[in-house]
Specification:
Layout (H helix, E strand, L loop, with lengths): L1 H24 L8 E4 L2 E4 L4 E7 L8 E7 L6 E8 L5 E5 L2 E10 L2 E12 L15 E2 L8 E8 L2 E8 L2 E8 L2 E7 L2 H4 L2 E5 L2 E7 L3 E6 L4 E6 L5 E3 L6 E6 L2 E6 L7 E5 L7 E5 L2 E6 L9 E7 L9 E5 L5 H22 L19 H23 L3 H4 L2 H5 L5 H22 L3 H6 L2 E3 L8 H13 L4 H6 L6 H6 L2 E3 L4 H5 L1
Parallel strand pairs: 5-25
Antiparallel strand pairs: 1-2, 2-3, 3-4, 4-5, 6-7, 7-8, 8-9, 10-11, 11-12, 12-13, 14-15, 15-16, 16-17, 18-19, 19-20, 20-21, 22-23, 23-24, 24-25, 26-27
Helix pairs in contact: 1-3, 4-7, 7-9
Amino acid sequence: MCGEVRNRCPIWRGILAALVCLLHLVTPVGAATAHLTPAIQVSGTTEHAWVLSRLPGPGGGPGRLHYNNATDAEGRLYPIRTLASMPVAFAAWDDTAYFVVALSDEGSPTGRLGVRRVSVLTSDPAGPHRFSSPRPLPPIPVGGDLLDFVATASGPAFTMRVDGQVMLMQLGGTTWNATAILTPELEAGTLSVLAGEPVIIVPGDDHAMVYSGESLDEERIPWLAGGVLRSPESSRVLVTREGDDVRVRLLWGEEAPVRTTISDAPVEAVAIEQGERIALYWTDAGSDPEISLRRRVADLNGQVLAVEELHASGPMSPREVQALILVMGSVFLTIVVFILKPERDDTFPMPEGAALADPARRMVAFLFDLLPAGLIAAFIWGRPVGEVLDLLGILQGKGDVLPLLTAAGILIATSAICEAIWGRTPGKLILGCRVVSRSGGPPPVHISVARNAVKVLCPPLGLFVLMSPGASRPGDFQTRVIVDQSEDTDDEAD
């Protein structure tokens, strides 16, 4: 018996080593659009940030859309879609991005424009990697020259020149509503967004006029040359560059006091609103914007956070890859257990006075043994024990696999030693169970290691216990032991 188990040990060691190596390889080490460079644009509100970049190619090259959730601690830029050509314009509001494409008929441009929409389908900040396909919005009824394009709480809005007349177009349900801009002053303004609604800003020397609503009601606000108007949540701020610093000024009546200063901000940094904060985005000199971005966030209370690095990510995060490897490894080990099962009689002569422990008792004993292993792993990694043992969260890509594997290794080692010496672990002692070999005594160390490795690393085998309460676990048949719940007082005293 021992010789057969000993021959299989190198196989188990090889499988476990391969899994550990694979896991180490993937260890995770405003509504208005801002242009970082001619090849890259950033837009968004709340925690959503959208990045549109131009790829190299003839005729300006195609465009690629990425997405980042600002609450994602790993700074992942999810690739959404590669577009056949760079959009004419691009803007985003919350979890939806809009882009304008030039429509053509049989390869001949017609001057008509179309608007497409892409939305986030998943709401989990740790893994927002599912998106809708680009969906066309109602066709724009007239052709013309696009001037400005923004996204609002109710949908996209833009200004365009049609037959010499500037029109403000807003999507209302399934139709585009047009408002004529009749004065030359307004025609020279810039379309922006305040409080989720489109506005036209006409800047002056020390003030600007803001026109909003269907009747284009006017409002005077403080202004500085080169400023950018943003509206984080219910506030209105003016973002200005003054020397090497970027300053965020809160608009309050006729005053614009500085609330936050971001020092040494790169010249190419652009600002968008994200929730109640302002976020600066930029690319490093000479870097490929498809690979990485930099972000620095500031609130209106003077707090400036550290610089974050955003990296283009695949459809799956490193943690999600780890979780996938964990599941595949467990399934693979389960298959190996049955493949390596020898062709022999599986009848097990029950020792005198022994009785198979019921599944509920064995499960509770396992949980008693798991808790100390989880506490030790939590101490080693400096994590809460609930996070270390959160298998469901790890499978969803929210947690790290390595602390869980540490707890699994500790559980296998301690259980194997206790069973080889006393025939029971602390959990089995509490529940009145013991592990019995063919001889009626505790199993040898190598057999105890094998059965605990199968128990911990192959959770699917636990289903067999639940489906067949009267049978021992397949891992116990492989190692030729049973879990006994004998009521023999002498045995309990051992």
